[in-house]
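WARN no homologs supplied; continuing
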Amino acid sequence: MKIKFIYKILLVIFMIIFSNSVFADQREFCDGFEEGYKTIKGDMVLVPLCPLAPITPLNSTDFREGLKAGMRAASRS
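OK structure emitted
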């Protein structure tokens, strides 16, 4: 019984740590998305909602991937 409780505690701790890093990555992606969108459309534009961040490829950053996604979105609209 105590072992199951310990596993549950460890699982909760792992989920908290993992979720914080995921939210930080999403924030960086959204910052890049906003900057990329404004690069194409200009500073005085309403930026659409930021999409979910994809898995970041090697040799890239979340911000850079957000920039590319924002520029693609601005080019389409």
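DSSP finds two helices and no strands in the chain.
OK
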